[in-house]
């Protein structure tokens, strides 16, 4: 049994949110993201802290019972920085960063009724994201500890999903969320959400297809392509735009027996997989770190060079993929060309890796 101290708050503290969201949706909420919200807790620690919790430099692990006290210890004993994290929510924050108007990007996920949930929600709203969280009565808000050592050279991540694992499809049935879904023109899902609520994904996917809206998905991680391929392939016919990196694409191709290891060929074959909405062709975008981005659609390949970043300028590559998608979507909802969307994604990823965590400078300086 995992134990965690939950600082509960009354339902009254969360009342009134629906009315506020309802007023905002009428003109905003162009894109809705569904994912696993995590409060990133970053702090400069030392090696003894890592040893205490059995972590290694540059680890990226899921929390076990022995890790649970770590989050509270970081918050109480170190100078911490909080960020509204989780892959999908990161993307929503980055996309919103590009725009002068708030609440264009909306997000749903499950958090706890606790202090960390309050902080996460305030940080997401600070970034301009329109949130409609599901609140879990007993489980704590999901967190990700980011233990920074060696003056920023190494970062060890430990994620505790907790309440984020408990999003349920009935949250979509709330009248306020039905309004949010009906008013949104685009939807974005990370494959991490396949581990939580495939029925929610399919409900949104079918709505998008029936109403000729854009359904966008991310492969997100190689293990998802391998171990969650059944729900992934149930959603795939609805996907209008698919993102992934070269490692994810390689595992996807192997698991789906696409018969090639060539990134460009993989992208083309994914773009040609069966598709429900015949009105628009599927676009597949594969990133390759500092190598060119590959875009496949309608039997054609287009490659875009990445921006070279000097090694000494790179602070943290975590969140680069989330930022790329955020930059892309920021332009896509404004109906910019795909070329501009890709260039915006490259710019966002380049800026994020110069920062600690998935954070950004005060103002974007993107031009095309």
Automatic annotation (TrEMBL):
InterPro entries associated with the record: Adenokinase (IPR001805), Carboh/pur_kinase_PfkB_CS (IPR002173), PfkB_dom (IPR011611), Ribokinase-like (IPR029056)
Carbohydrate kinase PfkB domain sequence ranges: 50-361
Native organism taxonomy: Eukaryota, Metazoa, Ecdysozoa, Arthropoda, Chelicerata
Cofactor(s) demanded: Mg(2+)
Organism: Trichonephila inaurata madagascariensis
Cofactor details (free text): Binds 3 Mg(2+) ions per subunit.
Record localization: Nucleus
GO terms (BP aspect): adenosine salvage; AMP salvage; purine nucleobase metabolic process
Self-association state and partner proteins as the record states: Monomer.
This enzyme's EC code(s): 2.7.1.20
Record keywords: ATP-binding, Kinase, Magnesium, Nucleotide-binding, Nucleus, Purine salvage, Transferase
Pfam families: PfkB
Pathway(s) the chain acts in: Purine metabolism; AMP biosynthesis via salvage pathway; AMP from adenosine: step 1/1
Domain of life: Eukaryota
Name by which UniProt lists this protein: Adenosine kinase
An example Gene Ontology molecular-function term: adenosine kinase activity
């Amino acid at each position: 049994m995992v134990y965690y101290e939950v600082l509960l708050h009354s339902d009254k503290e969360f009342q009134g949110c629906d009315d506020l969201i309802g007023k905002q949706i009428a003109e905003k909420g162009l894109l809705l993201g569904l994912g696993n919200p995590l409060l990133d807790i970053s702090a400069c620690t030392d090696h003894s802290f890592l040893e205490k919790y059995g972590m290694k430099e540059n680890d990226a692990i899921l929390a076990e019972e022995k890790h649970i006290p770590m989050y509270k210890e970081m918050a109480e004993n170190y100078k911490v920085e909080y960020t509204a994290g989780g892959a999908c929510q990161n993307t929503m924050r980055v996309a919103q960063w590009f725009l002068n108007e708030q609440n264009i990007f909306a997000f749903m996920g499950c958090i706890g009724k606790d202090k960390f949930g309050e902080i996460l929600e305030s940080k997401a709203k600070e970034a301009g994201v329109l949130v409609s969280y599901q609140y879990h009565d007993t489980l704590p808000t999901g967190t990700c500890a980011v233990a920074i050592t060696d003056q920023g050279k190494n970062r060890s991540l430990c994620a505790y999903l907790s309440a984020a694992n408990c999003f349920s499809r009935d949250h979509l049935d709330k009248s306020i969320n039905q309004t949010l879904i009906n008013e949104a023109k685009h939807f974005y899902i990370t494959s991490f959400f396949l581990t939580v609520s495939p029925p929610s994904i399919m409900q949104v996917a079918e709505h998008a297809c029936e109403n000729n809206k854009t359904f966008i998905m991310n492969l997100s991680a190689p293990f998802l392509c391998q171990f969650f391929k059944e729900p992934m392939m149930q959603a795939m016919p609805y996907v209008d735009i698919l993102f992934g990196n070269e490692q994810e694409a390689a595992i996807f191709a192997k698991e789906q027996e696409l018969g090639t290891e060539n990134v460009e060929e993989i992208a083309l074959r994914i773009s040609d997989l069966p598709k429900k909405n015949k009105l628009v062709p599927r676009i597949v975008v594969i990133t390759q770190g500092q190598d060119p981005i590959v875009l496949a659609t309608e039997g054609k390949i287009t490659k875009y060079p990445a921006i070279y970043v000097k090694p000494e300028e790179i602070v943290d590559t975590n969140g680069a993929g989330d930022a790329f998608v955020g930059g892309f979507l920021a332009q896509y909802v404004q109906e910019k060309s795909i070329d501009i969307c890709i260039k915006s994604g490259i710019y966002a990823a380049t800026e994020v890796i110069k920062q600690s965590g998935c954070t950004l400078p005060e103002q974007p300086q993107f031009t095309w």
